[in-house]
Specification:
Two copies of one chain form a homodimer.
Chain A (H helix, E strand, L loop, with lengths): L14 H23 L26 H18 L2 E6 L5 H11 L1 H5 L7 H10 L27 H9 L5 E8 L6 H6 L13 E8 L15 H10 L3 E6 L3 H28 L9 E6 L9 E2 L2 E2 L18 H12 L3 H4 L8 H4 L43 E2 L1 H15 L6 E5 L17 E2 L11 E2 L4 E3 L3 H13 L3 E7 L7 H15 L10 E6 L17 H6 L6 E4 L4 H13 L4 E5 L5 E2 L4 H10 L1 E3 L14 E6 L1 H17 L5 E6 L17 H8 L5 E5 L4 H7 L8 E4 L10 H7 L4 H11 L3 H4 L1 H21 L4 H4 L6
Chain lengths: 795, 795
């Protein structure tokens, strides 16, 4: 049972403490504004001149003072209460603010020793910001203490919950901008508190920052009556604490009290759950902070109000280099923070400024929780042989691959019962995707009401099910980024819902891989099932194999795509994915009964190669090149390809057929385009340079061309796949509609092998007849042809 | 001023009326269950036998009784109050329910005359459901009265608001399942009521249906205490009306009263706004309907509770064909509705069943609002010449293309001021995307608090800004599907947020295009700006050109992609897009100052061709084939290509260079793959079959290969584009980082034109030097080389 954090109904902050907090805040504001404007003269030791100003003024001032206020007050409570804390900065474009705070507390200089905590380092800090070759404008991976870039709004709160799960001693503060609060993903994330276990999970403290404006508009939540906002937050299951104002002294006092109240309540809720076994869902606190946008910046510019309006969103004074009035106004603004009282002559922050700053790994810029690779442990993955299905002869027995994987995942769940560093997330599809064996090892996280009829709900469960792909993705990202492991199982079509989120995660990984101080984290693993070929209940809206295309546009050092054709290959691929680091692994696998093709040993060897010849399936005699290559990737295309090979063996026995199966799609790319890419020697060895290749692919056929267009044999490559011919129908009718069926593949072979068209006219007609028979049968019976339904490789 | 609807604080429903409502509901339940199970014997005129049962049992029973209840009670109020109404069925997988109701009211037989309203038609209705070659299981385009498929959950409420905008006489009911309510997009959509104008817009009546379960889990909103749910809905700005129960008679009575109360309140709010000029935002009603999942279905199956649990989600009795007990149970279940009392001997619904059904176009399955093409009028688009920028010499003047377009859009906005059938939507980026001229014609829709400092907010505005791409997309889809026009302006990277939504809309259009009774609607038009090459403020997270790849995977009859290279081509493309029907048009165009290349007439001609040679830019003399083709698509690549052509003209004057610009990306596809595709003769005429083509493309370079791989000259095609080398930097540094800059393009030419490498060593070195000079300059100054910043075509 994790210990509850120290409760500390602290006394009111003293005036001295408040003065020091204000000094810290002013210093952070000064440094944030300085980053937007200054190339030189960082301490204003001389009057500001145009050459001190950056040639291009870039950055977002508007949110920065609010973020600085939150950072200052988080520092205070972290120090006073000796908390382990992490903060998610939802308005990530307030990068200058988080950078300023990291520099003040010293974590920046520890991470980047050239940016020293003195005048020289301050100049570098300011100069590098949003400067070519410098640091990005957002709370990107380069920023110490960050796990959330914040550029694409909507995911802060989901990340915060993901970080808090299974970290019972951690406080995760989360600043939510009122702009971000309008997004769907954020709006849906509030209900994550129904999944947070007060015993085994840490706490999330949302701080809704109402600064009133987005880029050019007021925000919805800042313009509804306060009682309505209050009802909304209570409806989300929170107890709101309101802090409003524009007088710094008053706001400091109110914010310090609000923080203490919130943390006392959190401590009490955790204590009650952990020590008294209280199971009632706590009404966790939320702080509503209402302060002006661009607070302490220029009140007016060129006669227009700026502070407290949308005009302070980015750069409040745009003409500083050319307009002497703007330059003077900027100097006055910067001097209003009294830098001479905040930094000593060498540019080091004075003691008052640093009074609130905690020590060592408690500093928000130095917490190991924001560098999850420091915390991650290898996952205990059992021997695959204990879960493999026996395969004596290929294509004889059938298994549901995801169900077989479910047994393995259940064991991982069991073996991490004490460590609690593995979670399964999914939009209410764990059982639908046939992974239900995991419920023997862990129930589903649930803190809302439970009825007798419910199954597998568990206050301490580690399977996360909510009907929001956004929340699943956000939870898992937050969980991985703070040093744990997981898997997202999702319907293939609907994983597109998180296209944009996975973009951002891939960008994060690509960048953090290049930062030596960021330790590698566990990969983000997708299991995409209930795929395009088997949407018997749902039809066209549930048919889309394009996620693979989407991720293959992204950084090749991060993305991996696997299409295991049967149960044992799925085990092998999953094993690899769960052990890997810093990747996004996309695994597409069926949940429906599927022939077993490879034994466990064969599967391991095949998956290690990523693509290979299935000698047993072809008719090559080794003395000459094959006449045709039947290639396949994906479970359904593999089955149709094997059935086509079977037909060719029977009807055209002297044709030399090679069968190639591709598990790891990136193998098709040139070596120089992807770390898994084959060199031309390997590729040509598999596919030949001059023989027809009939490639049956799981998804959009042109993807294969996009991967293989540079190969010598590309002009002989003919790909079949999904071409949006979707509907509610039988599995075999789906492949017929998309010309991916066995009969069509045989016809393709006959049409493309030189000379065969004439020799095999009768066989071709027989194939065409079978397709006609299919159409008639299905109209009449609504089921697949018996010869298809009963087919197996050994028939 | 639109008239307010008739208010009718109707008397309590009589017992007779309630009995008739129940008859209608039972009939709908009977038909819904029948569709899932029956192949024959639709009226149960004989005992049920296995051969009456479908071989594959597919469909979703769980939600159907609730949807039937809502439909029945909507019928009642529509009829009593003579309403024009539309219903969005969020749980679209409850297809059998909506089909049943349409058949009952007769709209189904009017749309599909072979499915008659008698026993024979009933058998067909049942048989065709989820049957190969029949109708899909969801509320797909095939279903009369539907504008919302409901397969991918999350968009019902946004669609409802989109449908209600500018339809002052329309009631849009919207059933939201408690599963769907967990999604982010739905959670964010509740705040759409801050954008609904009670004067010019219709009303949205959300009906939150808590049936308690998703696929295998309870739902969050059904398991929080009712006061918490009530606070949540009040926080969303609604006044909740609760209806709960499992006794049909009591629920009918409560539901009838709830509907009357809700509609009275709506009528009163509209009357106050329209007749008294009240501007206070109304607290619109929401009905919370709590009834059992799978209500009236089998209470228990094989000893497990089914009715009222997740076990009734799909097919409650799965073994009917083989298990005599299940068969008996099914028969008892179906007979429990007393079909003999609902249908006459010919299978026609009896009078009682139809008593609540409204007439003609008021029937939910016959409303023209659900077949928006019947209502759509051509948009008044002014002459482009009035907005064109003058171009005497190419590449001399600069304009911001989107700002030029803004003037045109403002005129369209002005010219539709009375018709109110054109809206602009965007996530708070209209001004950022430089379309602010529209504010001279219409303000921004806003019903929340307004302060003096705010600009362009307008209770009756038709520009929609909210920081939710989901809401923007959902609103626009709903607006278009009900017969109006619009444009979505969005940051290029973040349109991926709606990848999945646009998938569904494209699927909808593809299907509805094949239904002769569905009239074409206005296209969904995207203006993607603030694009990958110009994210000076934001950097890597804001850089992603992959939406084009995403849509080009979808049905070619629906998708169109345009990359106008300057202001006048943008006008021409926008004009075409706004006039078109049933497409998804993606227009990618910059907002930053951009050279003007073509006059309006030239732009029109160029856009009509979609791709063409810019003779003035090349050095062909017409006597022989060019030595090299410089191709380009997109504004930034076009500029770099022209600059490269300029360098080649100066440094290698005897090289014969052709410049080809591509506006309409699908032109590159083969004719048989896309209606806009070029035949090989055209393609080869532009690009040659044997000369090097250096193609500078706006997005991921492999997309061009994917489009052109079948062309004869493909092996000579060399594409430059965005390869994820993103960060916060200058515009020219971005192209250098991605090898798309003018110097690199010249080097590519030298490397690829046979014999040139030797002859042009010095020129190549000069180009390499320029890149080195760039790197040094930018490190020092943070700006682009003066020779780049000051370049123009005529220099």
């Amino acid at each position: 049972m994790p210990e509850a954090p120290r409760q500390d109904s602290s006394t009111q902050p003293t005036d001295e403490e408040l003065r020091a907090l204000d000094a810290h805040w002013r210093a952070a504001n000064y440094l944030a504004a300085g980053q937007i404007y200054l190339l030189a003269n960082p301490l204003l030791t001389e009057p500001l001149r145009p050459e001190h100003i950056k040639p291009r003024l870039l950055g977002h001032w508007g949110t920065s003072p609010g973020l600085n206020l939150v950072h200052t007050h988080l520092n205070r409570v972290i120090k006073n209460r000796a908390l382990d804390a992490l903060c998610i900065w939802g308005p990530g474009h307030g990068g200058p603010s988080v950078l300023a705070n990291s520099w003040l507390e010293g974590s920046y200089s520890e991470t980047y020793p050239d940016v020293t905590r003195d005048a020289q380092g301050m100049e570098l800090l300011m100069r590098q910001f949003s400067f070519p070759g410098g640091v990005p404008s957002h709370v990107a991976p380069e920023v110490p203490g960050s796990i959330h870039e914040g550029g694409e709004l909507g995911y802060s709160l989901a990340h915060a919950y993901g970080a808090a799960l299974d970290h019972p001693g951690l406080l995760v503060a989360c600043v939510i901008g009122d702009g971000e609060a309008e997004t769907g993903p954020l709006a849906g994330s509030w209900h994550a508190n129904k999944f947070l276990d007060p015993v085994h999970d840490g706490a999330v403290l949302p701080i809704l920052h109402l600064n009133g404006y987005k880029i050019a508009n007021p925000t919805v939540l800042s313009r509804i009556p306060e009682p309505e906002l209050d009802a909304l937050l209570r409806g989300y299951g929170h107890e709101p604490i309101h802090v409003s104002g524009d007088d710094p002294a008053a706001v400091h006092r109110a914010m310090a009290q609000a923080m203490d109240t919130a943390l006392d309540r959190i401590a009490e809720a955790q204590r009650a759950a952990r020590e008294e076994g209280v199971t009632e869902r706590p009404h966790w606190p939320v702080i509503v902070l209402r302060t002006p946008k661009g607070w302490t910046g220029p009140a007016e510019v060129d006669g227009e109000p700026v502070e407290g309006t949308w005009r302070s969103h980015q750069v409040p004074l745009a003409g500083v280099r050319d307009n002497p009035d703007h330059l003077r106004q900027l100097e006055a603004w910067l001097r209003s923070y009294r830098p001479e009282a905040l930094f000593d002559a060498e540019g080091r922050p004075v003691a008052d400024v640093l009074a609130c700053v905690p020590e060592g790994g408690r500093r928000l810029g130095a917490t190991p929780y924001a560098n999850g690779g420091l915390l991650v442990r290898d996952l205990p993955i059992p021997s695959l042989d204990d879960f493999a299905v026996p395969v004596d002869k290929p294509g004889t027995t059938v298994h549901e691959p995801t169900r077989v994987l479910g047994d393995l995942l259940a064991q991982v769940m069991r073996d991490t019962a004490d460590r609690r560093d593995f979670r399964l997330v999914g939009p209410d599809e764990t059982a639908s995707n046939r992974l239900q064996a995991v419920f023997d090892a862990s129930g589903k996280a649930w803190q809302a009401e439970t009825l007798d009829v419910d199954e597998h709900l568990d206050r301490h469960g580690r399977v996360m099910e909510v009907l929001s792909e956004h929340l699943c993705q956000g939870w898992l990202e937050g969980y991985l980024l703070t040093g744990r492991h997981g898997l997202f199982s999702c319907y293939e079509a609907f994983v597109h819902i998180v296209d944009s989120m996975v973009n951002q995660h891939i960008k994060w990984l690509r960048t953090s891989r290049r930062l030596p101080w960021r330790a590698p984290i566990a990969s983000l693993n997708y299991l995409l099932t209930s795929h395009v070929w088997r949407q018997d209940h749902n039809g066209f809206s549930h048919q889309d194999p394009g996620f693979v295309d989407h991720v293959l546009n992204k950084s090749p050092e991060v993305v991996r795509v696997y299409l295991p054709p049967d149960a044992n290959t799925l085990l092998s691929v999953a094993d690899h994915a769960l052990r890997s680091r810093d990747y996004v692994n996309v695994v597409v696998a069926g949940k429906q009964p599927c022939f077993d093709w490879l034994s466990m040993d064969e599967a391991r060897a095949h998956c290690a190669r990523g693509a290979g010849i299935w000698e047993w399936a072809g008719t090559e005699d080794g003395s000459r090149a094959p006449d045709v290559v039947l290639a396949c990737a994906g479970d359904v295309p593999t089955q149709e390809t094997l059935a086509a090979a079977h037909l060719l063996r029977r009807h055209l026995p002297d044709l030399s057929v090679r069968v190639v199966n591709v598990v790891d799609l990136a193998r098709l790319l040139p070596r120089e385009e992807h770390p898994h890419g084959m060199n031309d020697f390997e590729y040509d060895g598999l596919f030949t340079t001059d023989k027809p290749v009939i490639f049956a692919y799981h998804g959009y056929p042109w993807l294969i061309h996009r991967l293989a267009y540079r190969r010598a044999g590309h002009q002989h490559l003919h790909v079949r796949g999904y071409k949006e011919a979707g509907t509610t129908t039988t599995p075999f009718d789906m492949v017929v509609r998309n010309d991916l069926d066995r009969y069509r593949l045989v016809m393709d072979v006959i049409d493309r092998v030189p000379g065969l068209a004439v020799r095999a006219t009768a066989v071709r007609q027989r194939m065409a007849d079978a397709r006609t028979r299919h159409h008639a049968w299905i109209r009449e019976h609504g089921t697949d042809l018996p010869e298809v339904a009963e087919w197996n490789w050994n028939a």
